[in-house]
Description:
By secondary structure, the chain is an alpha+beta fold. The chain has one domain (about 30-220): Beta Barrel (Lipocalin). The protein is about 20% helix and about 50% strand. The longest helix has 22 residues, at about 1-25. The chain is elongated and about 60 Å long.
Amino acid sequence: MKIAKLFLMLIALVAFTTAQATDNGKGGKAAKTLKADTQKSTLTWNGKKVTGEHSGAVKLSDGTLTVDNNQLVGGSFAVDMTTITNTDLTDAGYNAKLIGHLKSDDFFAVEKHPKATFKITKAEPIAGAKAGENNYNITGDLTIKGITKPVTFPAAVKISGNQAEAVAKITIDRTKYDIRYGSKSFFDNIGDKAINDDFTVDLKLVASAANADKDTAKAGK
């Protein structure tokens, strides 16, 4: 009888331990990783200078969002810096000249650093946020030209089952990543050739479990 009781107690202990491991301590399912859809996700940039501004796009090469109990808890994405484009210059020559300059060592040194990355370190819900408004403050490590610095920005995150979408405007101080060309913070008397230290990136990240399943299936072939 004692042996039977001991056996039952061991079974109960194993069941409890297994439940704890899969439950995450919040009474819900384990966190899940949603894979970014690089075709539906977009990144557009805008940089201003004394005499005007330029804008364009760059492509997402990879990304994930981690969701736990319908809450964003983590994620990361990588940007293919070789895909930088400009959308405001209609003259092909000037357009190509600008893109070449942005890819050069004066700016993003794309040949040496073809990827920029961002990894979420903290996702804090914003209390009382209305539908469609920014409902998270996101903090993470942004790496450009091999230099990593923390960045914080608000984002509107929508999670529905196995799908998620994050929309945000990120303001980046380029000088923190050794991009000093045309910066009044480092060069005096440059007048109307000055370029703002800050530039912005409008991000739309679309992710789903279906994309993660596709990658798993490909890996299994």
